[in-house]
Amino acid sequence: MKKLLVVVYLFCLIQFVAGQNAVDVKKQFTLAAQQYELLLKSHPDITKFPQSSNADGSTRDMASSWWCSGFFGGSLWYLYEYTKDPKWKDAAHKWSMAVEKEKNNTTTHDLGFMLYCPFGNGYRLTKNETYKDIMLTGAKSLATRFHPEYGVIKSWEKFANYDYPVIIDNMMNLEFLFWAAKESGNKEFYNICLSHADSTIKNHYRKDNSSYHVVCYDKGGKVLAKKTAQGYADESAWGRGQSWGLYGYVVMYRETKNPVYLKEAENIADFILNHPNLPKDKVPYWDYNAPNIPNEERDASAAAIASSALFELAEYSKKGDTYIKNAIEMLKSLSSPAYLAPIGKNNNFILMHSVGHKPQHSEVDVPLVYADYYFLEGLLRYNAWLQKKKGKKS
């Protein structure tokens, strides 16, 4: 009996260890580099930012003013961070500088995506003062979209008949303002983050810890309507929106150490991971309440964002083991042939099967540049976790 128990224990231990090392980071970065070498070759014009695929299968490119323009440069920085190959540093610099002019753009709430993803990573890895100056200017531009009488950063200029819409995605741009607060000493940036995050907890989140996509405000912080744009219905849980919120509140806790934000991040994570409609491979449907599940499109970008966020959340939470396990399972699924594109296919993007805006029949079951970005970020965070584990054992 004792021998049997020992055998069972050893088997379980082997399975556990195998599960913790389920993703070959080196292999994934090698494949990603091969794809992005082809993507660079196909994009000699730095005014055309790779975004996705069109309905006819051609590459969809966008201008620097598009909210996703910073993700390509950011991904190139991640390739440089892992490989240390200077060719990726050169490419990352080139594509980061291609979006520099957006530092003066006050018409968008997405400057965190557009500027912090490329320049933030570039500055972190090189300490190039040019990047810092660009970002500080951009942070001032982003801050103009915060109006104290509303208490939140305005997202779009208009939504339906509402003049002050705020989307859950906006939580992602607060990391940029936190960085600017530290680098500039301007406390206003920090206070904007707190005000926006607190209002979002109060008004965007339901009792089940799912999030609305769009909340429309009036002066005094009065809520006029709670809607969706990219989700299935106003009361549904749009897949990527839940991941945006999770990531955003992990950042809020990192930057403030306020336990309220940690609890919010845990609540959102638990909603995602315990949802009855989350598939076994942990890659969400484009909406958790889409009407034809299981015959609905998956959103690889939602999984990539959530996986990356869970790796960091695990560092802070008492439920860290659960979050690590799920983060790895998501990353493992994305690294499988079900989502990872063959070399030279998928218009040279890394991941397949994301959904941008299904209600408008836009970017449905296609690659998306930000899915690649958060996939690479997740791989780096997983690799850091593995190295930390090895360090503890040695």
Describe it for me?
- With 394 residues, the protein is mostly helical.
- The chain has a single domain, classed as Glycosyltransferase.
- The chain has 13 helices and 9 strands.
- It has helices at residues 2-20, 25-41, 69-83, 86-97, 111-126, 129-143, 174-184, 187-204, 239-256, 259-273, 300-316, 320-334, 369-393; strands at residues 49-53, 59-62, 146-147, 152-153, 165-167, 214-217, 223-227, 354-357, 362-366.
- It has a 3-stranded antiparallel sheet, with no helix packed on it. A two-stranded antiparallel ribbon has the order 1-2. Strands 3-4 form a two-stranded antiparallel ribbon.
- A hairpin with a 5-residue loop joins strand 1 and strand 2 (59-62).
- Helix 11 (300-316) runs parallel beside helix 13 (369-393).
- The longest helix has 25 residues, at 369-393.
- The radius of gyration is 21 Å and the shape is globular.
- The two termini are 33 Å apart.
- The relative contact order is 0.11.
- The model is unreliable at 1-19 (pLDDT under 50).
- It holds the Pfam family Glyco_hydro_88.
- This is Glycoside hydrolase family 88 protein.
- GO terms for molecular function: hydrolase activity.
- Residues 1-22 form the signal peptide.
- It comes from Xanthocytophaga flava.
